[in-house]
Design a protein that fits this description.
Blueprint lengths: L7 H4 L3 H42 L9 E3 L4 E2 L1 H33 L2 H15 L3 H20 L8 H25 L3 H9 L4 H12 L1 H17 L2 H6 L6 E2 L11 H9 L2 H4 L5 H30 L4
Antiparallel strand pairs: 1-2, 1-3
Helix pairs in contact: 2-13, 3-6, 3-9, 4-6, 5-6, 6-9, 7-8, 9-13, 11-13
């Protein structure tokens, strides 16, 4: 009986397979490195132009009557206030509806009903934002906002906020449903075994157990609302400039819409003072806002996450 000698080279397997695995590893590493490189280059260009704006701008123009970048007036309060107004209105619309949809799909809907409703809800997420922008301008503004508030302008921040809210409903519903579904079924069964009703189990057991995931859903949706462009650009009512206002029934210009209005004339404004650089400065502020919110959400989730 013959015996085969084994050594390290034998255990390594076929040489051709090793070469193939090395090629795959190199390709995957290159893809990961490329994504990191692109992110670094984007941040670099953003910071570079934003720094040029910060060093050259007259700081008196940052607190003025409104946002008129082509005239050298960069009132930040105008676009920041409009962004916050639209975001708050959007979350007032999206948070309860998205959470209610998630609770129904995870706790109350029959499997057959869930198979029908969830794809329908996901269709809303696939609607282009430009379509929702025109829907907000042509339907929400004249038929809802104007009927509720007679003093509302034909295009206003409130209509844009409702449009953005509709856009973020599927996002909240999807993430919140995943968080609710991740709650162990044993908790529900234990609550029912103690005589609790379905509503009590949902409100006092399931929702508190999924609080970290629900918070993450709201933070992600808020970041999405802050970063939305086309809906507020179309339905907000302001073209490329806006007077300072805190009234949601008035036209306004959010930070993203301000960037879009400047970028639409990039070839013409590149030599006009700091107009072009203001685009990058506003983008840098948006980057800081969303990054801060994501860091807060990550810390909150880590602190209150429950593992079963």
């Amino acid at each position: 009986m013959t015996t085969t000698a084994w050594d390290i080279s034998t255990l390594r397997g076929d040489v051709r397979r090793q070469r193939k695995e090395r090629r795959v590893k190199v390709i995957m590493s290159a893809a990961a490195s490329a994504s990191i490189l692109v992110s670094v280059l984007i941040i670099y260009s953003l910071v570079l132009e934003a720094l040029a704006f910060i060093l050259e701008v007259d700081y008196a123009t940052l607190i003025d009557i409104g946002w008129f970048p082509r005239r050298g007036i960069f009132d930040l309060r105008t676009i920041v206030a409009a962004t916050l107004i639209v975001t708050m209105i959007a979350m007032v619309v999206a948070a309860p509806l998205g959470l209610a949809a998630a609770v129904y799909l995870s706790e109350y809907a029959a499997p057959r009903t869930r198979k029908i409703l969830k794809p329908v809800l996901e269709i809303l997420a696939g609607v282009p934002s430009v379509v929702l922008g025109y829907f907000a301008l042509r339907f929400i503004a004249p038929n809802i906002i104007t009927n509720l508030f007679s003093s509302a302008k034909p295009a206003n921040l409130a209509a844009a906020g409702v449009g953005v809210g509709l856009l973020t409903i599927p996002l909240i519903a999807s993430i919140a449903e995943d968080a609710l579904t991740a709650v162990p079924r044993s908790l529900r069964e234990a609550s029912s075994g103690l005589g609790a009703r379905k509503k009590t189990t949902t409100l006092r057991i399931v929702l508190p157990a999924a609080i970290s995931g629900l918070t993450a859903a709201f933070i992600v949706a808020t970041s999405r609302a802050i970063g939305e462009t086309m809906v507020v650009y179309i339905a907000g009512g302001a073209a490329d400039s806006a007077i300072q206002t805190y009234n949601p029934l008035e036209p306004g210009l959010t930070m993203t819409a301000a960037m879009a209005s400047v970028a639409s004339g990039t070839d013409n404004v590149a030599g006009m003072g700091l107009t072009f650089q203001s685009l990058f400065f506003v983008g840098f502020l948006l980057f800081l806002m969303t990054m801060t919110m994501n860091l807060i959400a990550d810390r909150f989730v880590r602190r209150f996450r429950q593992e079963y």
